[in-house]
Design a protein that fits this description.
Blueprint lengths: L2 H24 L5 H24 L6 H10 L1 H20 L2 H18 L17 H18 L5 H24 L1 H6 L5 H5 L1 H13 L11 H23 L4 H9 L1 H12 L2
Helix pairs in contact: 1-2, 1-6, 1-7, 1-13, 2-4, 5-6, 6-7, 7-10, 7-11, 7-12, 10-11, 11-12, 11-13
Length: 269
């Protein structure tokens, strides 16, 4: 795995930890030890998923998946940890957390699985906007997983905020992959709408983040939402001017999750 890909994977790991910790900070439902245990397994899962997605990018077959696994010793180690430690995690976690983990796993499965009963070669990750919504939901649910609760209004507000921001962020990454997605026949938002209409849509979706204040309108949430919307608006404009910039399409885009955590940590009392 080259340095560029390692950097991106580390950013995804940081994003995972940021959203988990955001949920835990808002609603620390259990002691710190089970949370740290959960965080480590989420790190393993994130590294494996995004590492394998890169290695099988041009071939989504099961055989390609195992070939990629055989070549990558580090990923094998993470998978071993996942298998070995998962029973202990299930024993320690609440039913709330287990339910959320199952939903995340299901979303990840239907995202990549070839749905032959619909059409040969059909995958939801190649469907216009659906892929972005699935990605947003799977990542946003990490907030609820960290807080181990889906009835707390502050948690729900941050879940919706993270989900919307990640939907926007995933479309921005599709902008960077525009040429590749044309070749792979992936119906992304930039390809269907064109770059001219994609960026106005992104600004609208970004502004929709303000609707989370209808769920939880505390002052600290107002500060968080306002700053995040401004941050993402800046990224959208930077990508509009240069859609090949790794700094804006990848690094600072993915760091939005960390920005959410930092803001919650500062303003949530």
């Amino acid at each position: 795995m080259n340095r560029k890909r390692i950097k991106i994977n580390l950013l995804f790991v940081l994003a995972t930890l940021s959203l988990l910790t955001t949920g835990f900070w808002i609603h620390p439902g259990e002691s710190i030890l089970p949370f740290l245990f959960l965080a480590y397994l989420c790190i393993c899962g994130t590294w494996v998923v995004y590492g394998l997605e890169y290695n099988k990018r041009n071939d989504d077959s099961i055989s390609s998946l195992f070939k990629a696994l055989k070549k990558k010793k580090g990923q094998q180690l993470f998978i071993f940890h996942l298998i070995l430690l998962s029973p202990f995690l299930l024993y320690m976690m609440s039913w709330h957390a287990i339910f959320v983990m199952l939903i995340i796993a299901f979303l990840g499965l239907i995202y990549s699985l070839e749905l032959k009963f619909i059409n040969t070669g059909f995958q939801l990750k190649k469907v216009f906007l659906i892929k972005n919504i699935i990605i947003g939901l799977a990542w946003g649910l990490l907030v609820l997983l960290g807080g181990k609760n889906y009835e707390n209004y502050a948690l729900l507000a941050c879940f919706f905020l993270a989900t919307l921001q990640i939907v926007v962020g995933s479309i921005l990454r599709d902008v960077a992959d525009f040429n590749f997605d044309i070749k792979s026949n992936t119906k992304t938002v930039p390809i269907i709408l064109g770059l001219r209409y994609t960026f106005p849509l992104l600004h609208v979706l970004n502004l929709l983040s303000a609707f989370v204040l209808l769920v939880w309108s505390a002052n600290w949430m107002l500060f968080v939402v306002s700053f995040v919307i401004g941050w993402k608006a800046l990224i959208i404009e930077k990508v509009r001017r240069d859609n090949h910039s790794i700094l804006w399409t990848q690094t600072l885009n993915i760091l939005t999750c960390t920005i959410i955590f930092i803001l919650v940590f500062i303003f949530k009392k």
